[in-house]
Amino acid sequence: MKEIHNESLKQQLIKNSAYQEHFSFNVEQETRLLHIMAGDYIVKEGERPVYLFYLARGRAKLYATLANGRVSLIDFFAASCFIGEIELIDQQHESRAVQAIEECWCLALPAKQFRAQLLNDAVFLRNLCMSLTQKNYRNIVSLTRNQSFPLVNRLAAFILLTQHGDLYHEKHTQVAEYMGVSYRHLLFVIAQLVDDGFLIKQKSGYAIKNKPAIIALAREMEPDATLFST
User: Fold this and answer.
1) Which of 65, 131, 141, 189 has the most crowded Cβ, counting Cβ within 10 A?
2) What is the largest CA-CA distance in the chain?
3) Structural domains in the chain (count)
4) Same domain? 125 vs 18
């Protein structure tokens, strides 16, 4: 993660992401512009975030290390949204890892400096409640999908969500746990996508060969979803 001193880009991201509208007071001057490369961490597990992050561009994933040492995927973030808001509200909350799936740009407000003011800002708290409600609804939809659609459709949507540069390389064990299926079942469906010519197996993962076909599988669950587009 690197702070970028580019006022023009910062103002562009503030405007395009409606960042300032989430606060009742002007935060632009104290907001930092941070650049995160794909694979780097926005928040490290167990380390309290120094900033309240606002993901203005890019995608990231949230995961945690369990007591038995296994790493469990929890959720995915796409611009625009807050990251680190739970740690801001609850100082006893144990931080989970947030890792960039692709190049990310974050607007960041120093958490310690602004915590008291933010927790007394009705505009910020109202927007935060709406954001948390949307995240909760997304998790409910994900659970409903797991119960209602075949794995091939859910995996297609997952591939589109996590791919970077048309390359999918998530760990099978984590994906199987996230989707509530067996490791063997997951491998069977991935092999099916390879046999059908939708994916090509490579050393670094799976290249998406037939993206329209993957999108078509995903859209069987959500025909109008803007995420599943070329």
Assistant:
1) 189
2) 56
3) 2
4) yes
Last-in-domain residue among 81, 113, 143: 143
Q: Taking a C-beta distance cutoff of 8 angstroms, is the pair 201, 169 a contact?
A: no
The helix/strand/coil state of 51 is strand
Per-residue pLDDT reduced to its tens digit, 48-87: 999 999 999 999 999 888 888 788 888 889 988 999 999 9
Q: Please give the Cα distance from 13 to 25 (Å, whole number).
A: 18
DSSP state of 8: H
Identify whether 80 is preceded by a cis peptide bond (ω within 30 of 0): yes
Task: Give dist(CA 165, CA 228) in Å, integer.
Answer: 15
Q: In sequence order, which residues have a C-beta less than 8 Å from that of residue 193 and are 6 or more positions away?
A: 152, 155, 156, 199, 206, 214
Counts for the chain of helices (H) and strands (E), in that order: 8, 12
Secondary structure (DSSP) of 59-98 = EEEEEEE-TTS-EEEEEEEESSEEESHHHHH-TTSPPPEE
